[in-house]
């Protein structure tokens, strides 16, 4: 493929983009699901003899674009449209200066999606933007405007003209500073590709295992298909590419016809005919033109197709995926095939000896992934008919966990035609996907309803008949049998209502900075100002270097992992004979090859570098294969044969829903107050429990390590890690050398979220055994690294009649996975947040760590805080329901200034201010009244609001980690080099450190540079985690800079009119040391679990959020309409970065509690290993109105320059308080539709909501 080293397609080899130095396109998932690898393709179309032949520009996923398919096609990457050194493209400039880039790994792909849109439409609408970014991941990037436009928006898009302006808000950028976009100055199409020669030639490419044939005529295609009947026909490679990469399929012959030979489209009297190789985007555009120009009664079918295309994959996939390929894959959950079947579309099949017309009916799909076409046949065209009759109505439906770019649970298309001037059904077609091995028609039900009037009697008959006809075996693939059967009825009911009615907004993200710099602050003092992320411009142009972008070293080798396929087993034998005989293989490595200690682990050495005799999870690293290329190493790794003796496997911590399975007898007991928990004074009691699932980090850049050997046993490691020092020490241990021989360097990461705090070492320790490079594929990374800890909790609360909780007893059980990792600290954090922000006089919490045969779970943004606080929100909801009071009333019993619930000292308490500000800014009372009115007027969709407060403790719970170092050099030209112990992963830590140094030294930020984080400059660093990195490293940088300021002070005094360079030069010639170390340790920390005394956190961050959610009671589909967040970040060091982090944390929390779900088999195999099966929020999941505000006038004396962390590094373990607020807000906002007291298991998925709504009237 275009993206990746040495891959051009299924089984073929070639240059790719990486070896030629084009590293801007990033490999994020290798299955077209994230968009990080987006590039633009351009090709000639139409009349190629004209002086200005027309061009076609479209975005594609490079990871699925075979080089063989790009003959005479121009490829434009992000490097080709602008650079920092020369000229930035307006798109690159805007996304950088409007604070739209954080970790930056996906930024080039976003830039190229926008660039391709502009090449086709110079003045796009908001709908065009939504379409261009549809289906994209938002894990690290959701900023669509970065803040107030400063009056630069046109029309009614500016808040200053549409009446929504906030006079208190400070703009984060000025749109007037941007270079205007000039569409006439774009890159020209390469003249070399204008030539007519070879355009008519057929092509043939030979690879190691595959022959790629590109016929140039339909006759030649048919001849080749007759000769190779089992050959796969490939147009967009969106299906075969996935099969080859992830299913290890090998296709000896691939036929990829030239794009012109069957991409025809023309209108006939009965409809529009599309060639089978027409892209879905082309079909979409043609149908939209037809809808705009034809009478409504003729376009009912077209509208149904367009409705499904709206949610079909992302724009890059639709640009290349062929309509014929969609049909011939015969997926039982196809989005489009039910529409074609309900419409009665015709398909034209062609043999070498003639053609035949195939009707789209119940006989077309003959079995799972099979059609009525013979092996030698090819599908030539598809006719989509007009809806000719005035009284024909058609609708299409798709139900999936995520609306955009997600695999369907159930799809449906329904068409009804009425007799003239009546409501009597003349013809009815009900087509369903996801209810059988093929797309099916409910023919029996349709036949029964013919001749009936469209009314209640027909509805009841239809539901009864569908319930009998649309059956599923309890063991049907995909599960959710009851939900799927119910959906067939609910979707018909939606169709019924739609037809009955026929018979008789854009996304807005606003970021407000209420915390502005003090009056009189000098313009050169950048602290508190919305300074652009230091790497934003390089990220926007693709010039930012990530670990795998480092150029290949001479004779560099590649390593691929050999992992366990069993969750718990003895290893009986390992056979490498086939692997070592394969091309390019150098050696295989196993436990006996580890030169030092095979024991490893971040705290307890309970893991092994390579498995020795026993495996304890699927994905346990057993060995590695070293080869000359990535493809050779991976192919050989799959050829290693391992024999196992399976042992009993434990996957879940629960035997039943109320009895936890404790497999590790190491409970952690804590109490936040010396008082004995008492329920005797309470007027009411309630006992409950809940389970919270895990979460995948899904950083866009997967784990990667490059090992470079040096002399004297030294090893230089380039690693994408949050913990450079821990990587250094564990690699040294594995190699049997001292730490001073290991140098770990971290330039930047493409996201981390805690997943790169400790688990990166499982790769680094293996890679360090040989001088090699290894970057995990997305499915490998998800398989071996673990994620957020699933939790189970049991609680008992005692409360008064006014809703005040006076006693709480809670027990937490966490699924640690197969090793301890950081599980103990995660549990401690959960216990320290078990009361959230509520005042509880008597409280006891106990934690139990449960070891299972899953990959070790680890740090994740929030680090146990979300697990602890969601349980608190559960018992708050329980109390409110028991008392019949609004949940917000119970939440009003918050901790106050002084000693709060659980005993911590809450000084500088601002939670009440955040609460009042959030209610005011969200118009809570008016919105709640509007929601009540909406619910009275709408039977099947309901709305609800919730306001949730939170507090989050700031510090590592392990006291020794609350320290940081820094090193600052001043060079004789006046430039400054700053190094500190923190790592940059998109959270803007380096940017903030430069701002701190700028203020202390009194020099502009242009003179200050941070190169990287390395263990040879600042030793013994703490992980960039715990939301404490700005505080710790900022204070260390401040300390080092202050030392230098004092050394320069005599020269300032001697030459007060001089400049910075004069003082530095004078000090140098006077032999003054212009380098200084800085150090900081957080004072007065320490907690004793035995006496329940001490201070575990330095201070608390506070936040409040209000969300309004709408639920479709018929399907369980839900969407967040509006969210208002107010965060206390003290005096923000950089409000633009802080707001971006809050927005990103919100979306990650929305995914945790409403969307993301990990699926394991009973044998412990992770089934969700990529964006195709594991869905994180996309651009379209951002609330229609999202407002983030920073609290004004809330200085924090305990941190650098009176600041507070918010979500701090999104990668480190501690999620900021606002993120936790937003997580629970979304979950609790559906309280209005609950009929039971138990809360659905987070994530609250659609089938759970549907069952909770209890609106199934038909079964």
From TrEMBL:
Binding site for [2Fe-2S] cluster 1: 29, 34, 37, 63
Keyword Metal-binding: yes
Binding sites annotated in the UniProt record for FAD: 233-240, 312, 335, 379, 398
InterPro entries from the UniProt entry: 2Fe-2S-bd, 2Fe-2S-bd_dom_sf, 2Fe-2S_ferredoxin-like_sf, 2Fe-2S_ferredoxin-type, 2Fe2S_fd_BS, Ald_Oxase/Xan_DH_a/b, Ald_Oxase/Xan_DH_a/b_sf, Ald_Oxase/xanthine_DH-like
Entry's Gene Ontology molecular function annotations: 2 iron, 2 sulfur cluster binding; FAD binding; iron ion binding; xanthine dehydrogenase activity
Family annotation (CDD domains): fer2
Name of one Pfam family that matches: Ald_Xan_dh_C
Enzyme Commission number, as recorded: 1.17.1.4
Region feature (Disordered): 658-682
Name this protein carries in UniProt: xanthine dehydrogenase
The species this protein was found in: Sphaeramia orbicularis
């Amino acid at each position: 493929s275009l993206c990746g080293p040495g891959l051009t397609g299924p089984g073929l080899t070639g240059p790719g983009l990486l070896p030629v130095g084009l590293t801007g396109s990033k490999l994020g998932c290798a299955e077209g699901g994230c968009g990080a690898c987006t590039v633009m393709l351009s090709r000639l179309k139409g009349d190629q003899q004209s002086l200005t032949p027309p061009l076609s520009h479209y975005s594609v996923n490079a990871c699925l674009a075979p080089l063989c398919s790009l003959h005479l096609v121009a490829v434009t990457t992000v490097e080709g449209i602008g650079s920092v050194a020369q000229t930035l493209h307006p798109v690159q400039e805007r996304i950088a200066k409007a604070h739209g880039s954080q970790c930056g790994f996906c930024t080039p792909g976003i830039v190229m999606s926008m660039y391709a849109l502009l090449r086709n439409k110079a003045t796009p609408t908001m709908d065009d933007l939504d379409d261009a970014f549809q289906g994209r991941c938002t894990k690290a990037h959701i900023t669509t405007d970065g803040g107030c436009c400063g009056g630069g928006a046109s029309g009614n898009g500016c808040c200053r003209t549409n009446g929504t302006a906030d006079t208190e808000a400070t703009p984060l950028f000025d749109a007037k500073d941007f270079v205007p976009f000039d569409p006439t100055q774009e890159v020209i199409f390469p003249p070399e590709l204008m030539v007519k020669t070879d355009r008519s030639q057929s092509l043939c490419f030979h690879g190691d295992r595959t022959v790629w044939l590109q016929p140039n005529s339909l006759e030649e295609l048919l001849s080749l298909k007759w000769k190779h009947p089992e050959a796969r026909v490939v147009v967009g490679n969106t299906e075969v590419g996935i099969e080859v990469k992830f299913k290890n399929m090998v296709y000896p012959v691939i036929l990829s016809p030239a794009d012109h030979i069957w991409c025809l489209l023309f209108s006939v009297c009965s409809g529009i005919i599309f060639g089978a190789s027409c892209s879905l985007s082309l079909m979409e555009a043609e149908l939209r033109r037809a809808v705009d120009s034809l009478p409504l009664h003729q376009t009912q079918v077209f509208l149904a197709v367009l409705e499904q295309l709206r949610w079909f994959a992302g724009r890059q996939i639709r640009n290349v995926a062929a309509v014929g390929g969609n049909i011939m894959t015969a997926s039982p959950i196809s989005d489009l095939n039910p529409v074609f079947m309900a419409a009665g579309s015709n398909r034209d099949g062609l043999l070498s000896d003639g053609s035949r017309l195939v009707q789209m009916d119940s006989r077309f799909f003959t079995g799972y992934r099979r059609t009525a076409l013979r092996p030698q046949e090819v599908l030539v065209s598809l006719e989509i008919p007009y809806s000719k009759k005035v009284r024909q109505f058609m609708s299409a439906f798709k139900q999936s966990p995520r609306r955009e770019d997600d695999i369907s649970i159930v799809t449906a298309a329904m068409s009804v035609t009425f007799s003239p001037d009546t409501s009597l059904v003349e013809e009815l077609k009900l087509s369903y996907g996801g209810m059988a091995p093929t797309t099916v028609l409910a023919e029996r039900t349709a036949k029964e309803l013919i001749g009936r009037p469209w009314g209640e009697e027909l509805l009841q008959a239809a539901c009864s008949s569908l319930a009998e006809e649309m059956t599923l075996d309890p063991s049907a693939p995909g599960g959710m049998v009851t939900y799927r059967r119910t959906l067939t009825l609910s979707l018909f009911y939606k169709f019924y209502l739609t037809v009955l009615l026929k018979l008789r907004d854009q996304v807005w993200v606003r970021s407000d900075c209420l915390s502005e710099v003090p009056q009189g602050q000098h313009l050169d003092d950048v602290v508190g100002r919305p300074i652009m992320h230091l790497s934003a411009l390089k990220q926007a142009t693709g010039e930012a270097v990530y670990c795998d972008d480092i150029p290949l070293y001479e004779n560099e080798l590649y390593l691929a992992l050999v992992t366990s396929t069993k969750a718990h087993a003895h290893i009986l034998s390992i056979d490498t004979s086939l692997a070592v005989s394969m091309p390019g293989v150098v050696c295989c490595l196993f436990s006996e090859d580890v030169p030092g200690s095979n024991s490893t682990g971040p705290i307890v050495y309970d893991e092994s570098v390579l498995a020795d005799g026993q495996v304890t999870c699927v994905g346990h690293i057993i060995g590695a294969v070293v080869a000359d290329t990535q493809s050779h190493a991976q192919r050989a790794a799959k050829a290693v044969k391992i024999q196992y003796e399976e042992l009993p496997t434990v996957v879940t911590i629960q035997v039943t829903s109320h009895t936890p399975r404790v497999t590790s007898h190491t409970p952690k007991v804590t109490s936040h107050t010396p008082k004995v928990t008492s329920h005797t004074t309470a007027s009411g009691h309630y006992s409950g429990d809940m389970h919270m699932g895990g979460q995948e980090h899904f950083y866009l850049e997967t784990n990667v390590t490059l090992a470079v050997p040096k002399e004297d046993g030294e090893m230089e490691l380039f690693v994408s890690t949050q913990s450079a020092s821990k990587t250094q020490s564990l690699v040294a241990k594995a190699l049997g050398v001292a730490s001073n021989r290991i140098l770990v360097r971290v330039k930047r990461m493409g996201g981390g979220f805690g997943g790169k705090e400790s688990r990166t070492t499982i790769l680094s320790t293996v890679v360090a055994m040989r001088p090699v490079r290894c970057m995990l594929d997305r499915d490998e990374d998800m398989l071996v690294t673990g994620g957020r800890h699933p939790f189970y909790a049991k609680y008992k609360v005692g409360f008064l009649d006014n809703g005040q909780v006076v006693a709480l007893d809670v027990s937490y059980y966490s699924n640690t996975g197969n090793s301890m990792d950081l599980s103990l600290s995660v549990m401690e954090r959960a216990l320290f947040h078990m009361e959230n922000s509520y005042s509880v006089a008597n409280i006891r919490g106990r934690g139990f760590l449960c070891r299972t045969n899953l990959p070790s779970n680890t740090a994740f943004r929030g680090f146990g805080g979300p697990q602890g606080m969601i349980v608190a929100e559960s018992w708050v909801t329980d109390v409110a329901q028991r008392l019949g009071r609004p949940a917000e009333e119970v939440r009003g019993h918050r901790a106050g200034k002084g000693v709060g619930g659980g005993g911590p000292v809450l000084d500088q308490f601002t939670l009440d201010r955040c609460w009042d500000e959030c209610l005011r800014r969200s118009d809570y009372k008016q919105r709640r009244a509007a929601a009540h009115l909406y619910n009275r007027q709408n039977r099947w969709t309901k709305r609800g609001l919730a306001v949730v407060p939170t507090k989050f403790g700031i510090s590592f719970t392990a006291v020794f980690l609350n320290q940081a170092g820094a090193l600052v050099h001043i060079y004789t030209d006046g430039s400054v080099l700053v190094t500190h112990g923190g790592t940059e992963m998109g959270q803007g830590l380096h940017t903030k450190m430069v701002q701190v140094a700028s203020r202390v030294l009194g020099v502009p930020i242009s003179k200050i540079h941070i190169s990287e984080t390395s263990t040879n400059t600042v030793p013994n660093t703490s992980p960039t985690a715990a939301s404490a990195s700005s505080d710790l490293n900022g204070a260390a940088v401040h300390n080092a800079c202050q030392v230098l300021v004092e050394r320069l002070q005599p020269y300032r005094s001697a030459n007060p009119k001089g400049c910075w360079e004069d003082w530095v030069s004078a000090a140098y010639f006077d032999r003054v040391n212009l380098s200084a170390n800085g150090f900081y340790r957080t004072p007065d920390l320490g907690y004793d679990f035995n006496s329940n005394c001490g201070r575990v956190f330095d201070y608390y961050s506070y936040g409040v959020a209000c969300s309004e959610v709408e639920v479709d009671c018929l399907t369980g589909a839900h969407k967040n309409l509006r969210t208002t967040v107010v965060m206390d970040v003290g005096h923000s060091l950089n409000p633009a970065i802080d707001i971006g982090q809050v927005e990103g944390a919100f979306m990650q929390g929305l995914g945790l509690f409403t969307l993301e779900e990990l699926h394991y088999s009973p044998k412990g195999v992770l089934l969700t290993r990529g964006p195709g099966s594991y869905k994180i929020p996309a651009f379209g999941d951002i609330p229609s109105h999202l407002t983030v505000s920073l609290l004004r006038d809330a200085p924090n004396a305990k941190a650098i320059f009176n600041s507070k962390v918010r979500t701090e590094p999104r990668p480190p373990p501690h999620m900021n308080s606002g993120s936790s607020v937003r997580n629970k807000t979304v979950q609790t906002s559906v309280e209005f539709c609950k009929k039971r007291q138990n809360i659905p298991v987070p994530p609250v998925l659609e089938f759970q909501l549907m069952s909770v709504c209890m609106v199934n009237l038909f079964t």
